[in-house]
């Protein structure tokens, strides 16, 4: 057994499970840079920058802490390597996150977000994820399985994000199948997801409008040339849920209407989201609303939605209200240029008050 493996397995042996075990294998060191104006082909000097945690699972943990003002609801199970991996752990320690790290040989990726204040445009540059070695993949599965099958398993398992090269979707599928009936399974992932879907162990799947079509287009040629505007997203979500025996499928569509298909009850709801730019003074307060272009930063908004929705479910909120709260938190996070997944609960509540929810099926 490699030394790194022994360290992680010993951590799992003594680890007390939190409410949520978050599978967060594809972390990132996130750099967000703000420019007064970006000129292509020229030297651009930033007016502000932040270094923060990145990756969908890490964002999930950040948003959960942001909502509850406590970091003890989530345990991150992550794969890190190199100097960037060390920096990520240092930030997690500073913010009080609970994590178990599986070490790999190659460095963890870096992601850079550039925000142009003159136009309101956002550009994201994602670095390369290093290949996960075979020992790290084996260790990741063993640690996750041991936690899920412990005497006190987590109340929920959240799978967040893409799988880095070397971590097979079949491995993740086995992890999910190792959970007991005590653990709710929440999935916010798309790439190579079919083996996970085929496990038929998913209680809630949260995807965006393009992702749900990508999943179905691999199964049905009729969906291959479709865009979200070409289909009834509620019916598409219901079809996907029925195909894989998923309890509920939540579909976001940026600032447009979101949908929740409760497959078990054969019911669906539509969620209309208010215009953030039009009503920004109301949401932010007239003294807080910036003048000129308002930079909307959608990065991490989907992860914020997942975190708040999942946590509301564990707080015994009905699913429709849990998803509405997640959408409101995600929208509020867009109004904070940096860092990702940070939001004001008062702003979230104002946005929720302006949302409309309709039963459509």
Account of the 3D structure:
The chain has helices spanning 3-14, 56-68, 82-95, 134-148, 169-177, 194-197, 209-217, 233-243, 280-284, 301-314, 319-334, 345-354; strands at residues 20-24, 28-35, 48-54, 74-80, 98-103, 110-116, 121-126, 156-160, 184-188, 204-208, 248-252, 258-262, 267-272, 356-359. Helix 2 crosses helix 10 (301-314), helix 7 (209-217) packs across helix 8 (233-243) and helix 10 (301-314) packs antiparallel against helix 11. The longest helix is centred in the C-terminal third of the chain and has 16 residues, at 319-334. The strands form two sheets. It has a ten-stranded mixed beta sheet with strand order 5-4-1-8-9-10-11-12-13-14, sandwiched between helices. Strands 3-2-6-7 form a four-stranded mixed beta sheet. It is globular and about 50 Å long. By secondary structure, it is of the alpha/beta class. The termini are far apart. It contains twelve helices and 14 strands. It has two domains: 1-203, Ribokinase (UDP-N-acetylmuramoyl-L-alanine:D-glutamate ligase), CATH 3.40.1190; 207-361, Ribokinase (UDP-N-acetylmuramoyl-L-alanine:D-glutamate ligase). Residues 38-335 form the Carbohydrate kinase PfkB domain. This is Ribokinase-like protein. It comes from Linderina pennispora.
Summarize the structure.
InterPro entries: PfkB_dom, Ribokinase-like. With 361 residues, the chain is α/β, with parallel strands linked by helices.
Global morphology: globular
Secondary-structure-based class equals alpha/beta
Low-pLDDT parts are: 1-7
By CATH reckoning, the class of the largest domain would read Alpha Beta
First-to-last CA distance? 54 Å
Oligomer: single chain
Taking all residues together, what is the mean pLDDT? Answer: 91
Q: What's the gyration radius in Å?
A: 20 Å
Order of helices and strands: HEEEHEHEEEHEHEHEHHEEEHHHHE
CATH architecture of the largest domain: 3-Layer(aba) Sandwich
Biggest sheet, strands in spatial order? 5-4-1-8-9-10-11-12-13-14
Major sheet description = 10 strands, mixed
Q: Count of DSSP E strands?
A: 14
Count, helices: 12
- Helix share bin: 25-40%
How many domain modules? 2
Strand content: 15-25%
Query: Which fold does the CATH topology of the largest domain refer to?
Result: UDP-N-acetylmuramoyl-L-alanine:D-glutamate ligase
Q: What is the H level of CATH, i.e. the homologous superfamily of the largest domain?
A: Ribokinase
GO molecular function, one term: kinase activity
Keywords: Kinase, Transferase
Domain Carbohydrate kinase PfkB: 38-335
Protein name: Ribokinase-like protein
